[in-house]
Structure formats: structure tokens, C-alpha cells
Amino acid sequence: MKKIKYLDGIRGLAALSVVIFHFVRNFYPTLDNANINQIHTNGNIEILFATTPLNLLYNGNFAVCIFFILSGYVLSYKFFATKNDEVIVSSAFKRYFRLLIPVLFSVLLYFACIQSLPTGEKYFGNRDGFTLGKALYESFIGILFYGESTFNSALWTMSIEFIGSFIVFAFCAIFGKSNKRIIAYLLAIIIFWNSYYLAFILGMLLSDISSFDKFTIKKAIYILPLFFLSIYTSSFPTNINIKENSTIGIDLTIYSFLNYIVKGYLFWHIVGAFILIFILINVKKLQSFFSLKIFEFLGKISFSMYITHLLVIIFFSRDFFELVHKHLGYNYSALVTFVISLGLIIVISYPTYYFVDRFSVKFANILYNHFFKVNNFKFESIIRSFTSNVNKNRILLCFSFIITSLITLVFIYLVPIRFFYYSNKNISIELNSIIHKNDYYQLYYTETNSDTFSDSKVVQVPVMASTETQKIKFNLPIENISKLRIDFGSTPGVFYIKNIEVIKANKKESITLADITNYKFNQIEASKDKNYLKLMSNEQDPFIVSNNLNIKKINNTNFLNYSNIILFILCLFPSIFYILLKVQSFCFKIYIKENS
Description:
By secondary structure, the chain is of the alpha+beta class.
């Protein structure tokens, strides 16, 4: 499909918005959470941005919703234009490989930086938890199928993108030619209500509508109200949910009405993105604007920028800011850091686009053309001919499809492949918590009851402020743990703990709130708050110390080591392709026989 320049342009602008968002969260968290204790500018300008449509300049979640709307639109556009089933077959076949190669590149790049750069341990904790086997597992399976993104946290969207793509393909294949597919759209909207997959359905709906010229709006009297509605819904604050966490709660902002109708930001961001793209495909002047060279360039590198920008922010921006801040004020230091960081991100993104992103498209096309086309006969047309003539063969094909699907599900979900990759027997500690300030948390540990805490047995990880529950992971270089001590930064504050989990080889044992309340608290006042333990401290050294954990020894099921993982991957895909070739050859012979 020929690229639509203005859609690429708005995708590029959305990617830039994500970059700005992550920079803001690191250096101006008040712009995101409206917490008055984290303000770095004079007056209330940061609060103003956080609680008004001005936050659209850096609203990362809204930008992600634009990505998903565009995916639904673009992935179905050619099908609705041609009503050719082969479009769905080819797109579905190529999708995994299209996403895999950039993801693999990104994860291996992060792996190399974590293991080789001095700041790797500073920002990611103990390096032993970031192994090559884990990087390969996440790249091929974990990220796309399960949403596991230990190395590059920005890749949490990839599983949604991957699964959402197949929702689009399935919808088009089943309902795409039906005259009553509006009913299917309504059912899909209900099913995926208030989830990211709703964006794919709405994007596909836009693509469907745009194939009919009569469903267009030209008059400004209709466009302007929609534009302002899009601005209003799209700018719903992401991290202003609890009044206690901020200077104000969401109910005291201009978004209280929206929050009354549907609570939370996700639905409104999807609605805003839907309206914005609808306006864009109807207004020629906007299309011309987003087709400008600068936006076209950003669109080209948007995916590459998305998968690499956090690498620059984590390994360069933070330390560079600290260096500049020794000579300049906070705001000037942040500005200089942002400009140089953005330039570096673009410098990295362009070759990534040129050598990795473009290659992934070519590679997926080569695989499809080689394995799904024989003597210019399309696999899809052969199947159609094969199944339309003999009812017995249709039943056999359907039965084979069901059996193949079940085998695939067994391999992906029922057989715990994701449990096998652990050659690492070490323990990890996960703290499920709500944090209101950027800081560093430290975890001290002992291996026996008689040991005492020391600076030689400590893991430090950075934490970011958020009103959402987040997992803070400490990777420990030990196989058993007796006691732990968690230090909650070096400044006063409020934080919430939901639970603590001890993990080994993907097996977990949970330390509940009831257990945690019996711990020793230093410079902390603890109280129960719904499903959380609320910890308040006005001192400089707040920490908790566990009792003897008495964690049962978690056996490590090490079915696959590094070499076995690589061998498994090398054998799996050729096997799949061999089976596809055999099926294709069989269908081709039937086709020739029936038409001779």
C-alpha cells in the first residue's frame, strides 16, 4: 500500500510527543501529576499545563492511542479499497516478522548498554538479571505475546499492537464483506470498551467509512465543534486521579464532567484520537499541513524513534543533566539537555529506520512471496478454489485448521515456554507500589538469618513518580534470601505498598500486607488504606526491615539454556515454513487436477 503522507506526518508528531512525555516525567514530573512538591518553575505554570489542554504537547498516552487508531486504519485500508482476501492473508503472515526485527534490535541494543556501560547497573540494578537468554526470549515471545518488556519499557505497546492487528485481520476476514457489518462494529465496540483494542476497532471503522465518499464532512460548522471536542477529550490528564497525590483531584478540573461519564483517561484519549483522525481525513488543509517535509521525515523515523528514545534519556540525558546542572540553573540545564538529547535521538533513529525498520518490511515481504506464492498462484486463491468445489475437502480443511490452531495455542500458551528460558537461578524482589516522587530505592538483603545488612549486599533502582501502581524490580545475585530491608529514598514523602513478591524462575511467593504490617518501620508511620499500606515519612532515612522471610526454596525448572533457546528458535520457524510449503504444494496439486 502506498503510504498516506499526512497519516505518516501525524504519526511522527505523536512519536515526538512520546519523547517529550518521557523527558517531562524525568525532569518536570509536576507537568504530569500536578504534584506541587515537585515544581521546578516559578508560579503555577506546571500545574496549569497538567490540568488543561496544554498537556497535549506531551500527552504520551494520547499519542499511543493515535498509534493504535492509525494501525486499525492502515491495516484495513487496502482491504476495504479492494475487498481482496489476499490482503488479509499477506498482512497477517507478515505482521509478526514486521514487528519482530525492530523489537529484537531494540532489546539487544538495551542489553548491550546495560551490560557494558557504567550506568547500566545504576539505572537497572544488578546486571545478572538482564541476560542474553532473557533478551532473546522477550524479543521472540515475551514482548509480542505477553507484554513483557524488562529491557525497554516503551515496548509495552507492542503486544497490544500485535494482538490488535490480528483483531483487525479477523474482523475483516469474517465481517469485511458483509452488508450488515455495522452490527459487528457495535458488538466489537462493546466487547473492547475502555481497552486499547477499542482504538483498533475505531481505526478500522474510519477506514471503512473513508472508502465511501458520501460519509465525509466538508463544512467548518461541523468540523470546528468536533475539533474542540477532540482537544477536550484528548487532554484528559493521565496521572491526576487521586486528590491526595496532587494539589487537586480530577474532580476539581475541567475534566470532572468527562470523569463522571466514564472514569479514567483511556476511553477519552481513544475518543479524542478517533475524532482527530476523522477530522484529518476530511480536511484537505490539515492533510497538506501534515504532509510537510518535516512531518514526513518524523513519520519515517517514528517507529525507530519510539523504540530507541528511552535509551538516550536513561543512559545519556540524566547524567548529562547532572553535569550541566553544576554550572547552570535547573531550567536552563533541562533545556540544554532536551535539545541535545532530541538531536541524539534523531541521529540514532534515522539509521535505525534505514537499516532496521525498512529491512523488517522487506524481510517480511520476502518470506511471504517465497513461502506463500507458487508459480504466480496466490495461496489464498488456491485455497478458495480447493474449498469451493468439494464439500468434503472444505470440512477436511476446517478440521485441519482447528487442529493447527490448537497445536499453536499449546505451544504459545499451554506449554510454558516463557518459564523455560531461565538459566538464571537468582532471586528477584518485586515491590508493587504507588510512588509520588522520583528517587532511588535500595534493597539490602541477607542469605541467612545470622547475617547482618551491609553495603556489599544492596541493589539500587531508580523509581519514577506515578499515581498508578507500578512494579519495582530488584534483581539479586543470590539464590536464597532470608531477610530484606527496603529504603524508600532520601527525602520525606508518602508511598503506598500493595504487596511484595519473591520471584525465582517465574515462580512467585507473595508477601501480603498482613505480613508487611509486622515488619520493623524506621521513620515511617504506617496505616491501612483500602488495598494498600500507606507509608508516611517526614525524615531523611525511611525504610522497612522484614522478619525472617521463611520463603520456601523455589526449584528452578531449567528446561532451556541459552543454546537451547537459540536452537529452538532456529528449528521452529523453518519447521513452520516447511509445513506451509507442504500444505501449499498439496493444495496446488488439487487445484491443477480440478482445473485440468
